[in-house]
Specification:
The chain is α/β, with parallel strands linked by helices. Helices cover 36% and strands 15% of the residues. The strands form two sheets. It has an eight-stranded mixed β-sheet, with helices on both faces. It has a seven-stranded mixed β-sheet with strand order 9-8-7-10-11-13-12, sandwiched between helices. α7 runs parallel beside α9. The longest helix has 19 residues. It is globular.
């Protein structure tokens, strides 16, 4: 199979495939085309790719023209879509529910696409887990740092107990998603007090009884609770929170808006909100759009807000290797054939993650979020 690895946009430093995995694919008779400098920001030179048998091409357009399956991390920009046609299959992180304009263009051009965030096996979204792990861990560290006076803003409050002072920082996590659970481990590992807001009763029970979390809380003498919270409870908890971390999202859908202006106003001046689900939409009334690497935060009501859309890109080398390993071992290496859709049908998880095809939207989660017509991919490709 012919596979293209594209060079990403300005603030996306990851790359879909790394040289060690390309070596495996080439050995298995796949042809890999890599756009010049595609891996530089992740620590991989063109020479690294050439050494393992990849072909370096000058532009993304040439890479797309050369291949059947096109791999990209960040959602394509409108000018990039001009390079595609209906015979290509584009695989990327789209978050279409929060990017309806990109979706409309892809549907109009009848581009076939696989959403990385929709690929799952046995209800596990393996390809996004490394990204969510980084988001959860770094989100806590970001909030912790900005509580300190080194950030020239925070409360000056520590995350752990001190001799003669046990008044340590209170963290609150909204939703126990992949990122939320990683954030919880990090908070309790550092020694902070933690409340998790989770309305799924079965999941809430699992988290409460999680031996790892219980052990961390006991070792660091931290308070740890899981709360099934309505808006009244949420308001009370937010008012005493030092770092509020939102991870409230379902892969492919829109982030639920749960943080009101009134809640933010009730928070202490110098406290911090970290929104880790911003790539799927804003979480509250005080957010308008994602923040950027150049301007990572804004301050409203004396509360510092972080809403950086692609935090995993900050750890591009590690995330690229993890994503590439999963893509290669689980999904790409065993695919055989020349007709791309016939090839994809060999792999149930990839086939079920086809999100657009022949001008139709084939992902029900996205269709429900945007109130659009949905077509089952199995009825379109028999």
């Amino acid at each position: 199979m012919k596979i293209a690895v594209l060079k990403e946009n300005k603030y996306e430093y990851r790359v879909c495939l790394v040289p060690s995995d390309i070596a495996v694919l080439v050995k298995n008779h796949h042809e890999i085309y890599v756009t010049k400098d595609a891996g530089v920001n992740a620590g991989f030179s063109d020479h690294d790719f050439l050494e393992v048998g990849a072909k370096i091409v000058k532009t993304n357009r040439i890479a797309i023209d050369s291949a059947d399956l096109i791999l990209k991390i960040s959602k394509p920009l409108p000018n990039e879509l001009k390079c595609f046609n209906a015979n290509k299959l584009l695989m990327s992180i789209f978050n279409f529910a929060n990017n309806p304009n990109i979706l409309a263009k892809i549907l109009k051009m009848k581009i076939a696409s696989i959403a990385i965030e929709a690929v799952q096996e046995n209800d596990v979204y393996e390809l996004i887990i490394p990204n969510e792990q980084i988001k959860g861990r770094f989100g806590v560290l970001l909030g912790t740092y900005h509580l300190s006076k080194l950030s020239k803003f925070g409360l000056g409050k520590t995350f752990t107990s001190l001799e003669h002072n046990h008044n340590k920082a209170q963290f609150t996590i909204i939703n126990a998603s992949y990122a939320g659970l990683e954030a919880a481990k990090t908070v309790l590992g550092l020694g902070g007090n933690l409340s998790i807001l989770e309305n799924d009763e079965h999941l809430a029970k699992q988290i409460k009884e999680d031996h790892h979390l219980q052990t961390l809380a006991k070792l660091n003498k931290s308070t740890f609770e899981v709360v099934k919270a309505d808006f009244t409870d949420l308001s009370k908890i937010v008012a005493v929170t030092d770092v509020l971390i939102n991870t409230n999202s379902v892969p492919g859908s829109l982030t639920a808006k749960r943080i009101t202006q009134k809640m933010v106003t009730s928070m202490k001046v110098g406290s911090v909100i970290v929104d880790l689900a911003i790539d799927q939409g804003v979480a509250g009334d005080t957010e308008k759009k994602p923040t950027s690497f150049e301007k990572p935060f804004f301050i409203t009501e004396g509360v510092k807000h972080f809403a950086i859309e692609n935090i995993p890109s900050l750890f591009s080398n590690s995330i690229s290797e993890a994503t590439s390993n999963i893509l290669t071992e689980k999904f790409l290496n065993d695919l055989k054939g020349d007709q791309i859709l016939d090839v994809i049908k060999q792999h149930k998880a990839l086939f079920n993650a086809i999100t657009t095809y022949d001008g139709f939207l084939t992902n029900k989660v996205v269709a429900d979020a945007l109130h659009l017509e949905y077509k089952d991919i199995k009825t379109l490709i028999k």
